[in-house]
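S2.1 Query sequence (Acetate kinase)
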Amino acid sequence: MNVLVINCGSSSLKYQLINMNDESVLAKGLVERIGIEGSVLKHEKTGQNKVVIEEVMKNHKDAINLVLKALVDENHGAVKDLGEVDAVGHRVVHGGEKFAGSVVITDEVVNAMKECIELAPLHNPPNIIGIEACQELLPDVPMVGVFDTAFHQTMPAESYIYPLPYELYEDMGIRRYGFHGTSHKYVSERVAALTGKSLEGMKIVTCHLGNGASLTAIKDGKSFDTTMGMTPLEGLVMGTRCGDIDPAIVTYLINNKKMTAEQVDNLMNKKSGVLGISGVSSDFRDIEAAAKEGNERAQLALEKFDYTVRKYIGSYAAAMGGLDVVVFTAGLGENSASNRCNICKGLEFLGIEIDDCRNDIRGQEVEISKAGSKVKVFVIPTNEEVMIARDTKMLAGK
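Output structure tokens follow.
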């Protein structure tokens, strides 16, 4: 069974074609600048060099059509014809309380996704556009929606409820939902496999650290708490997002700086985080380079990020009544030894001890804690695509 995994952003599209017999990637690629001048497809069949196709793509339908052509191309295609694509799995960011798991996509499901647009106005619309484009181009192929929020539907009420009038939760769905669920689920399952232990009884903190970042407390294999909230803005300091702040800052800026709600939202989502503190960049590599050159604000941005992650690891250990494993994943978590080291400094009282030699790696699946460390620490590259493909295979196969 071949599953095509689609992940649509507002002007981009990532994809992988996966053979589910052995979960091997047949082809993968990235479409950038959809609807913008200079749109391009970067396609790679496994075992061949990457192919760059520059072509005007006015919308996501054009982009998906070009992807499908690339997949069956006689030179760099991965299959002979589209009949070999057995199912399509779509990443959907926000499912609200409507979806506690992945689902076969129907008209009713798409309508329910549209009802969640207010909760994820930047993410759900392109996800839905991608689904509708695939339905038009591949009308007979079953499709499955896999939600970033679904894994976190196991959180207890005390984790997800906000201390606001309860009617706001009942009437408007204002609560913590959490994101990156597919990634957190994947790495927690991998660490159980690597340690040879059952998720039942384990207490894990997974750290998905990238430009967007979140931590999840996982108890008995289920999401117990997570840092992102009703939207992906809450929680950790991120590339351009502020994370946790005093909510009164919003009204203060509106009243004293005469900013509009839209301007404040833009400031918190796109101009804050390590970019706002450092004034250098939202890319941690640029910030690290500036810090090495003596830029104090860049150094402060790194220290604030590491401190926030460290603080949440400690709080989640307390919330779960203990801690067995910490997992680092995603772009920064997988590739920055210095960040991992600085985050874990000060957590020795929990039983976390990092081995500097083991930690000196990038993008490898490996334990980085010392042999006698009470709490094990792992680096595990995430693989959201294979998780989406697995759910798609299971549901489409029925």
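The two ends are 13 Å apart (CA to CA). Residues 27 and 274 are 34 Å apart (CA to CA).
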